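Dear support,

I submitted the protein below through the web form. The confirmation email said the job was done, but the results page showed an empty box. After a refresh the structure appeared. I'm attaching both so you can tell me whether what I see now is the final result or a partial one.
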Amino acid sequence: MIAAVALSVLLAASTPPSGLRNAKVATRSVAPGGLAAEVKALVASPGPRWIGYSQPVIAGNHRMCCFGSLSDLNKRGKDRFCCGGCALERESSFTINNDDDGPVQLEGSPGLVVLLRADRGRIGKIRAYDDSCGLDAGGLPFTWLADVRPEESIALLGSLVRQMDDDRREDAAGSALAAVALTAHPPADALLESFLARGQPHDLRKKAAFWTGNSRGRRGFEILRRVVPNDGDEDFRREGTFALSQSPVSEAVDLLVTMAKTDSDGEVRGQALFWLAQKAGDRAMKAIENAIHDDPEEEVKKKAVFALSQLPRDQAVPELIRVARTNRNAEVRKQAVFWLGQTRDPRALAFIEEILAR
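What the results page shows now:
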């Protein structure tokens, strides 16, 4: 059974995506250890070109495509690609989302298409797409590399992340990180963790944290749990709360609660409260209430009131009214009344009228 699955992955990786259009396609097989040299030779070729290959994708219903770029084709009913498809030579609205209605991709299956655009001796763009996404190559040469091993892809993408970050090509570096994070192979975790290390550029650490939380499941959460709460950079810890909020692992909420209570920086505590509110639930409510009552900084208390306002209305409105009635801090009460007004809820309006009538 395992051998059959492995064979199907290799066969799927040997041919370009079925939705590829408007491309001058050539296919090459990559020998073990030969990916970097193959890509280097293609990059040195004259004129712009696309280089592509397939990789095993992480488990889940990830849909990586564009919307709007090929909608005219869809309206005419000629090409019904996933999400409208992507015109590679035009700027497109790229999206990655979880499609609960789509078939579940099994970890280790093909399904991830990695694309590199080469021109003038360097790689200028990197893209990662669902293999059901229609691709229009704009008439350019398109070299499909078959049999690319995941560990070689991850190593190549890692070197491109570093190079592009050094060149301040942040969008390209972020796209390369996305391709790493979506690859179902253990070395991806180690590479992402290396980009989280102290001393790495701040923007690179921020992007790596996001993709680690968003895509790497349990392994990603364990990496963030080791790195984020103990980091000496308050700005990174603050942004790390967002990365934790993207994790599907339930313990991520517990860690956000702990950071909301105990982090030494008020900005970090406030951000943890905000992202807790987006995840909602009883644990979020309790952490927010504790911050309003117990946090030593008034600014954090005010941020906790804002976080309270982000909860579902049936939770938020009664709690905001309670804070506005009973909290001993005048600024906190004022914030509660302000956010009550923004809800436009009849209960909130009745409470504000009651205050004005006093």
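Response: this is the final, complete result; the empty box was a page-load delay. The radius of gyration is 24 Å.
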